[in-house]
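Weekly sync notes, structure subgroup
Attendees: PM, AL, DS (notes)

Item 1: joint prediction request from the bench team. They want all two components modeled as one assembly rather than separately. Inputs as received:
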Amino acid sequence: MARKRYMQAINEALHEEMARDPKVILFGEDVELAIMGDARGLYEKFGRDRIRNTPICEATLTGMAVGAASAGYRVILHMMFSNFIYTGFDAIGNQMAKLRLMSGGQAVMPITVIAAYGGGGSNAAQHSDSGYPALVNLGGLNVVMPATPGDAKGLLKTAIRGSNPTFFLEAIGRGGEQGEVPDGEYTIPFGKATVAREGKDVTIIALGSMLKPAMAAAAKLEAAGIDAEVVDPRTIVPLDQDALVRSVRKTGRVVVVDEARDRCSVASHISAVLADEAFSALKAPIKRVTVPNVCMPYAPNAERGVIPNDERITQVATNLVRSKAA
Amino acid sequence: MPTTQSAPDAGQLLALYERMLLIRRMEERLKADNAAGKLPGAVHLYIGQEAIASAVCLQLKPTDWITSTHRGHGHFLAKGGDPNAMMAEIWAKRTGICKGMGGSMHVADYSKGILGANGIVGGGFAIATGAAFAAKLDKGDRVSVAFFGDGASNQGVFMECLNVSSLWELPMIFVCEHNQFSEFTPAATVTSGQIVDRARAFKIPTHVVDGNDALAVWDAASQAIARARRGEGPSFIEAHTYRIQGHLEAEDLMLGGQKYREKTDIEVWKTNQKDPLPRLAVKLVEGGHATEQKLAAINERVMAQVENAVKFAEESEPADPELPFELMFVGQKA
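Output from the run, pasted for the record:
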């Protein structure tokens, strides 16, 4: 184990996988200079055939990923900010997510799309979205949201080695944070949640960037005598429903924390699943802590006001546990 | 324009005629079976445009890539796709080339380089460009062809893919089948300037040909393919043709008595002077490559193939309704 930054862990995974398999290529806007940090050193090491700057044309890049993958390459498409997924959405929604079924299983598309999501940097609404609920709803895409450096490295390696299109979403505010990264070779399977903190009074399910405020909330709750369990699904598609249900059956209370807008968020989906699968164990209503149905504002104070934080999570969890109605 | 790289020999000419005729007869049968209510989904027929797909694809290798359009039966058959598997696909049977999961607008055979017909107008550009990029990285001589219509030329990805292909000298061939209609809208009312000028703006060599003259298409494609194989980059072919059938076969119902073209115009394109099949037949006979009897024998062979394909489709089991759950992902349940 060594402590490494989130972006450093992702960078290591890219270096290791490109060295391991010559069919892995990476392209996108400004990837040669590795402007987002995660691709640093790749161009110098692997050259222009395998690391290539593209024009700014996302609608083409997503389609090219489909074509190059169909022609035998393992494609990593770097899309910088997840908002740019919207400009490339046709080939994502109509080709990448669909062609495997439509071709009767002929299409095999080993594609990893990397994009940073979320707010907290005063990047305003066109660079701060958490648009993954749309991806989750398309059906044919895996969606991965690592919260820690260790998970980021292991999940990215699984994505690159896999045979399905996978969106690897970087929590933008987490890039500089440190965490334990195992030494040597390892991968993390999709569809396996992790319990970040064990507890018995309330379950906090935290997606990607929300793990940090959830853990901070758990510490505050502990000081107030409430023992929270924090569960990180790590991958949204596939989703480890069993692990979520197991935790909620144990605690009887649940708060789902998601940086997406509330309406049709992943938190909404998880809430629906839990209502179906764990209803009899619930001692209180399922609660969601999400971004309100607004776009991310630019002003830091306004932005802080909409992104879920430890205080909101603590408040909601406390109410759940203490509420007489519960 | 440069001179002919390789004119088709007698064998190629006959193969070209036979492939065009196979497409024509398959489409005619689909038209009839659609009218009889035998097909579950929409069909968009390629009648009148057969020379383009055939003259291009007969010069490609099985390892070369193509992407096609919603009007894709012709490209599928021209590139060597199996008529039985195509027919079964359109009939929604489990023996279909896509196991009944794609249908008419999505026939694909990856093993033959057919990356699929595509229901999104312009959907094939970037897929073909990605395959061309892969071919370039392979350092072999594979080429990639994007077939598209005048309608798709108004999609932004067309310009994006011209740019990338030219910039990276990809082995791409853009084949614009200008059939004069953007669905139900005459091309001139939605397309400014000449489509070929868009390719010229990216310094891509261009060919404008009579798309109903199979030999003219053959010549342009021959030059474009040779250039791509030499690693010199993309070419653009604008082949002028005419869509004899409607945008789709249920068109009259959708139009509800309205019209966007004159019946008399359509009739002109069905004449022996315009139709690509009689035009090639005349050349074959006049050139001494075939007799009328020989052409009649080809027709009989093709008709038997069509009958066989329909019989195969009719007798096949319906698609497996469990398949969508298996096929969304590789090795992972939906």
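Discussion: DSSP finds 13 helices and seven strands in chain B.
Action: AL to compare against the crosslinking data before next sync.
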